[in-house]
Every structure is written in C-alpha cells, then in structure tokens.
Amino acid sequence: MRKTKIVATIGPASESEENIVKLLECGVNVFRLNSSHETIDVHRERIERLKRVREKGYQFAILLDLAGPKIRTGRFETDYITLEDGKEVEIVCGEEFVGNSQRFWINYDKLYEEIKPGEKILINDGAVSLTVKDIDKSRKAILCVIDRGGTITHKRGVNLPGVDISIPSITERDKEFIKLGNEERIDYFALSFVRKAKDVEDAKRLTDIPIVAKIETAQALNNLEEIVIKADAVMVARGDLGVEIPIAQVPIAQKRIIEVANLYKKPVITATQMLESMINSATPTRAEVTDISNAILDGTDAVMLSAETSIGKYPCEAVRVMDEVAKNTESFMEEYETFRLDWLKEYSSSLDLPSAISYAATNLAKNIDAKLIITATGTGTTAIHVSKYKPSIPIMAATNSYETFCRLSLVWGVVPVMLEKSLTTDEMIEEVTKKAKELGFVQPGDKVVIVAGIPWGKPGTTNTVQVQEIK
C-alpha cells in the first residue's frame, strides 16, 4: 500500500469521466481544480462530473484552488513588448491603457504607495527584473531601471519580493468560487498568496470547509507558524515561492514548511514542477524523481501534479511515476525507519492529549509488531495525529462523517472507512476489523492497535488505546 497521497489537477487533458476514472485507477487520491483558469460554470460542471464518479464507488477528495490576488501587467500595443537591459520603463498603477516598452500599467492601484526605490519588481515568473528608481505619487507612476530584460506578453504575472503589500487576500472572483465550493460541498479550498494568519481567518469567515494555506511569499515564510496554526492544511507552492525568494533558498524553505506543518499536525502538500518534463515526455528526468522522493523523506503528506495532468500529454503515466517513486521511497523509510524514529524522539515530550495518545499508539504498535492501527474519528483529527508519527503500518480511519471520509484522502498513510452512525464502540471495532481482513491488511492471529473515544462518534473524546487480536 502506498502511504503518500497524490494530488492531480483536472483540466482539458483529464476532465472526462473516463479519464478521471483512469487517473483514480493509476493512484490519484485528490483532484485539484484551478480557478485561475476557466469560468465558474466550467468548474461547476467538473465538480458535478467528479461527484458522478464518486457515486460509482471511488473515494477521493476535491480541492478547489482559489486564484487569489495575482498582480498582472495590462495589455500592449502589440502581442508582446521587449524590455532592454539598462533602459528605463514606467509602470502606472491601476489606470487602464494599452502599454508599450516605455510605459505600461498593472492592476494593483496602491503599489506606488507601498514600494520603495531600490526594491525589485519581477515579471513573467522572474524572467524580467526591474529595480525601482523613482516614484511619482501624483501620477501613481513607478519609474524603473531594467536589470534583466526580455519579452512580455499580455497580462503577465508580477512578483514583488520583500515588498509588504496590503492587497486583500481574497478577491471578488475568489468569493464567487467560495460560494460555489460551499454549495457543492467540496472538501478543501486552497488559499493563494497567504501572507499572515489573518488571511486564513478572513477565508474561514466565508466557509466551514477546511483551508489549505499556500506558502508562496516571503511574508508567509516570515509568519509561517502563525499561518500553520490557523490553517487546516498547508501547501508548499514552489512556483511563486521561487520568484519571491532567491531560488537557491527554495529547497530549505520546503523542508522548513514541511517540518512546521508536521509539528502542528497539519497535512502538507508539496507542489509545482514535480514532473514538469512529463507534460510532453512519457518519461521523467532523474532530477524529478529525486525531487519527489526527497519531498516524501522530508515528511510531506502528498505530492501534487499541475500541468502534467491538466494539459499534459501523459497524465496517467505521470501518476504512475509518482506512485512508483513513492512506494520505493516508503520502502526505504520502513526498512531504515529514517523519518519515524527521529520524529518520535524529537516530539515525544510535552505533548497535548491527542498527540500523546497518538504517540503511545504508534510506539505500542511498533513494540508488539501490530499489523494495523485503527482510529475512530469524527473530524479526522485523531487519524491526522497518528499519521504524523509515520507508522510503518497502515492507519485505518473509521468515521461516521462522509465529509471526514472524503477529506482523509489527503492524509499520509490513512485508509478511510465509512461506518453507520448508530454503531456502538464494540460494533465499530468489529466492523472495521472485518473490513481490514477483506482488504488484506490483517489475518487471524494478527494484532491491531485501536485508538478511540468512549462513547464512539462524539468528536473530541479520543481517550482510549487498546490492543486486539484478529479472530
């Protein structure tokens, strides 16, 4: 069984029911919808399609990625403009007009108030670099020197590394997509360009659906712990992060984000360019498979595919590669216990009650050579806590909540099981062990460790660890 979860982005290459089923059978656990592309009606249709596939018995989570407040250039007189090294260019804030290589506009009208001379403006994922020379506040204009020139087409992204901007984290378009997600009862929202904990709090005022905070700005790294505490899950969004901070710092930033997410018991997704070459190639590069493996060794819950499955030529092949790399990496982790023992040693003291119970269950399972950990969970919290100790055996999470059943598809090592609400604790254990035998996780004579609350089904009552032998 593969414990690392795979997130795949739905797009033109994968949006049919037939292709969704193929991706599931290749190993996808979570489907991501990118609201930066296509209309709200297109995404509504995709969600409905995913739900129809669920009705066939497939189990997965749906993640709706909100575009966020992306700053972009305006349109130009020609299809593209060329900015030359050493020359000057004027950027006007918020005033729409057709631009050229001497003067163009951007869609953030307050930047002239917040940026300072000497600070950088990066365009087109950092391909073009400008330094602010002067600011004319009366005209809302920023005069820049071109450090690294290049061509820019219409509506290219603008990054402002180190600049503390006040742009709202949730746009009007995002609010429409939040409304859609609330109506359709998706499983997660991903919040883009989070800068501080308040951004997550603002999103939570609009929805009761879990929020995945995308860490992709220097400000977010500076406020990492407060963001992780407020968020329900975290994404290492390496695309914009690699523009916002020096690209050489991205690997260490990734490790830090994953470490903090694990410390606070939050699921974490590692994303962006994991198999970029497979958009057009049937085989990955050696660097790409190493990247996937290292993210898993860092402690990520999930690895994500973007363009590889949304517009790529080989979506299923990309998922299969991730699946194989994950299985091989996990085999190494189990053989040498590389992650788990270090984690248990470092974080086994001063734990809150859910963490202490999860630690005890994981350690007990190791000491008695148990074949399975069973968690009874209403909200998924117990299963997530156990997961963070990276047990070498599967975690079967029994829940009476369909929303929890779906959302646990994101969590490392967890196999969700849907049970009837009316079951007693003993009936729940009997039902789950029966399911475990059917799936081949256990056989008669095997030991299982059970983490539950008495009475079962009441959130927040996890208070029991017990051992049972399979009959």
Automatic annotation (TrEMBL):
It catalyses: pyruvate + ATP = phosphoenolpyruvate + ADP + H(+). Residues 1-319 form the Pyruvate kinase barrel domain. Its cofactor is K(+). Gene3D superfamilies: Phosphoenolpyruvate-binding domains, PK beta-barrel domain-like, Pyruvate kinase, C-terminal domain. Pfam families: PK, PK_C. Keywords: ATP-binding, Glycolysis, Kinase, Magnesium, Metal-binding, Nucleotide-binding, Pyruvate, Transferase. One of its GO terms (molecular function) is ATP binding. Coiled coil: none annotated. InterPro entries: Pyr_Knase, Pyrv/PenolPyrv_kinase-like_dom, Pyrv_kinase-like_dom_sf, Pyrv_Knase-like_insert_dom_sf, Pyrv_Knase_AS, Pyrv_Knase_brl, Pyrv_Knase_C, Pyrv_Knase_C_sf. It comes from the Bacteria. It is an enzyme of class 2 (transferase). Its EC number is 2.7.1.40. Belongs to the pyruvate kinase family. PANTHER family: PYRUVATE KINASE. This is Pyruvate kinase. It comes from Fervidobacterium pennivorans.
